[in-house]
């Protein structure tokens, strides 16, 4: 049988003041904005340096599926992990399609997400696209 831990009233619980809560909220917002800018810069750099880049969230199963599909074709994609879709804002043009994670960039251009990658693969157009980008030599 489990025993309850006795409650100690030596340290009373105190609610933080509204000013302290506001300061924590501002710090959180600025930290998130800073992380988003760093993610966006990292994505832009990765897209410009590698022929195939997969941008996704950490430990995302869809990112894993995209990576394994490309590796099965003989491509070694660069995988860049981000916190959210805001990191794609600098890479995807304003008139372009909406980018969702995971996003696949081939030859510096957005190919699309997992659904678009699968559609291009099934139609037989993916291998020529990868050859043209220099990611596949066969």
Automatic annotation (TrEMBL):
UniProt domain Glutaredoxin: residue ranges: 52-110
Organism expressing this protein natively: Triticum aestivum (Wheat)
Lineage: Eukaryota, Viridiplantae, Streptophyta, Embryophyta, Tracheophyta
Subcellular location: Cytoplasm
Protein keywords: Cytoplasm, Redox-active center
Name listed for the protein in its UniProt record: Glutaredoxin domain-containing protein
Protein family according to the UniProt entry: Belongs to the glutaredoxin family. CC-type subfamily.
Pfam families from the UniProt entry: Glutaredoxin
Coiled coil: none
Keyword Cytoplasm on entry: yes
GO (cellular component) term, any one: cytoplasm
